Amino acid sequence: MTTKLELRNVTKTYGKTKVINDLSITIDAGEFFVVLGPSGTGKSTLLKIIVGIEQPDTGKVLIDGKDVTKLPPNRRNLAMVFQNYALYPNMTVYQNIAFPLKMHRIRNIPEKVRNIAEKLNIQDTLSKRVTQISGGQQQRVALARAIVRNPTLFLLDEPLSNLDARVRYSARGELKKLQQDLNQTFVFVTHDQKEAESLGDRVGVLHNGSFEQISTYNELYNDPRTPWIGDFVGDYPMNFIGKMGFRPEWVEVGRGNYEVEIDSSENVGGIYFIHGKTSSGDSLILKADRRYETGERMTFGITKFKEFDVPVPGQ
Ligand SMILES: Nc1ncnc2c1ncn2[C@@H]1O[C@H](COP(=O)(O)OP(=O)(O)OP(=O)(O)O)[C@@H](O)[C@H]1O
Ligand SMILES: [Mg+2]
Q: Are residues 173 and 284 in the same domain?
């Protein structure tokens, strides 16, 4: 069984701040849905509302069509991995994973713990305290504890953010595979572009309390709905001249109708990102195949662009 999740017109205010504002979304059964947004935009708040730790001021949470807005977390059959893992530091790995099973008086606990530990390759750490294992292992323990009860909906709050770049890269692949093996619905929160790109079937970008765009990462990058999305999505922000938005690589360098004066050149693995300004003062970042010196002028043409009908930020 997989689970479909719906939020209808959810609003949440802390003090005077409206953190979630009339947000609606339907997440399909078996989907890997990524919530992407800058720090402080309400991503964790949104997950807490879904899991039931926080109550929305208005609006509804529906799981497989059933209104669970007023149900406590333990009656929603979903699992949450918290931003800081929230493992019990005084317990062993085994005790941490077994904990939710004990709480629900489930039988065959040792066997279930062993199975899940093997699946996540932490079977050799079971007798250690969680303070004696690495960050990557802690992350697996948190996942194991979430998975062990066979939930049908997974809520993951930046579970990879404490890992170093290499481990993070492989953890991403493993997580995607795990979701496909389990064939369950995942809602994964991150502020990391690469995670959104590699994990999400769809990505919802949270801005001003609701989803400003929900689409594949590719679409966010190539066809942003608003200038804000164009600016936020991508390793480099979209460039803007007037209402025209274009990516660093959507140009032909060396000929065309535009010119920038170079501020600096940045070498990223043999590709150069050229930072410069047009004569009318637009700051641009353009991709080129060689270094340009500060003060030098570079001519370019725009080969592809997105035209916005709303004003561009900062112009
Ligand atoms: N319990 C609370 N009481 C008051 N304000 C809160 C509470 N929880 C969160 N906030 C505020 O709500 C806003 C959203 O917080 P939230 O933790 O959901 O953001 P986030 O997108 O998860 O950020 P990050 O990426 O840094 O984890 C922030 O401005 C935060 O200060
Ligand atoms: Mg958060």
A: no
